[in-house]
Amino acid sequence: AEELMARSEQLSVAGQLAAGIAHEIRNPLTSIKGFLQLLQAGVNREEEYYKIMVDEIEKIEKITSELLFISKPMTDYKKIENVSEMINDVVTLLAPQAKLKNIILLWEQHNGQSVICDRSQLKQVFINLLKNAIEAMDRPGSITINNYLKNNEIYIDIIDEGTGIPDEIMTKLGEPFFTTKQNGTGLGLMITRHILERHGGKLEALRNKTLGSTFRVILPTP
Ligand code: ADP
Ligand code: MG
């Protein structure tokens, strides 16, 4: 195991989040305000400006909806669920996105373990990780998903053949708003970690021997 994401435990998560939210929302707001002022002054590039403003508003929407997800209570919704079934749903959901990039999803459904969880939250974990895996691939290849039982814990490995994780980024994973992507929010891994903690589980990021990285989810058995 290369490294566990521990950074956000050192700093106050709430403090990081507040600063991050303020920053990430202020930027698009400043830009929207600027374009509104230009429109008010009567420029004649309305169509272009409206498009930019809608993009900026969508950025804010994306951030706020991801943040709302964290604040959802979940203890009341914990039930016994089948891990394989959930992964299967997520693979089906993201298969078109993978296909567009000529990525093969290698997933063998076998009798999955049971886990006590909030189904929609745990599915969100697999969505976040599989999406990242797909986004990390800059050429055709495959993503393998393995789930198995080890030391009486449930393991789910998502193994990609993507660009991998450079050293300087390893410690930043899971920090709110840390992203290397043009259209990223940098909230996916933080939310993932958060959901897993609420389930008594954890997330590990590992470097593959050959190509890409592996994100490993470990969950307790019921
Ligand atoms: P986002 O996907 O919006 O950038 P995440 O929290 O999901 O936010 O991921 C944060 C960053 O971690 C990514 O921008 C990327 O640099 C890195 N990362 C996450 N998953 C992978 C992966 N499978 N391979 C390489 N880098 C990854
Ligand atoms: Mg992501």
TrEMBL record:
Residues 20-222 form the Histidine kinase domain. It catalyses: ATP + protein L-histidine = ADP + protein N-phospho-L-histidine. Keywords: ATP-binding, Kinase, Nucleotide-binding, Phosphoprotein, Sporulation, Transferase, Two-component regulatory system. Its EC number is 2.7.13.3. One of its GO terms (molecular function) is ATP binding. It comes from the Bacteria. GO terms for biological process: sporulation resulting in formation of a cellular spore. It is an enzyme of class 2 (transferase). This is histidine kinase. It comes from Lentibacillus persicus. The chain holds residues 151 to 372 of 372 of the full protein.
